[in-house]
Amino acid sequence: MEQVLFSQFTLEEIVDAFKKVLKESKENPKLVNSQTELITRKQTAKIIGISLPTLNEWSKRGVIPSYRIGTRVRYKKDEVMSCLTKVKTIKYR
Fold first, then answer.
1. Which one of 17, 35, 42, 59 is least enclosed by Cβ atoms within 10 Å?
2. What is the C-alpha separation between 24 and 40, in angstroms, rounded?
3. What residues pair up with 32 in beta bridges, in sequence order?
4. Which CATH number fits domain 38-91: 1.10.1660, 1.10.357, 1.10.10, 1.10.510?
5. CA distance 45 to 43
6. If we measure between CA atoms, which residue out of 27, 40, 26, 31 comes closest to residue 75?
């Protein structure tokens, strides 16, 4: 059985904690934008300029990293953009 610890915080302490987090997020926007945009298979294939079966094959081979969310496959847009140079060399062999 887990041990649960409850603490009492005043309203001022909670407000101060939120202010601190908001200030840090303004100073370092990368903390806020750490979540990258996920795009669909169709969007990914269109960006790269390949067909969906080719995208599926490249995902299986690990050329482009893919992520399964439930029954759907998604790609991180920043990873797709960074893979474009590697993909172009494969595409035009």
1. 35
2. 32
3. none
4. 1.10.1660
5. 6
6. 40
Between 79 and 18, the more confident residue is 79
Average pLDDT over residues 49-59: 92
pTM: 0.56
End-to-end CA distance of the chain: 59
Q: What is the pLDDT of residue 40?
A: 94
Give the pLDDT confidence score for residue 6 in this predicted structure: 63
* Strand pairing category for 72-76 and 67-69: antiparallel
For the chain, strand residue ranges (E) read 38-39, 67-69, 72-76
**Residue 42 in this model has a pLDDT that exceeds 90:** yes
With the CA atoms of 77, 91, 61 and 39 taken in that order, what torsion angle do they form, in degrees rounded to the nearest 10?
20
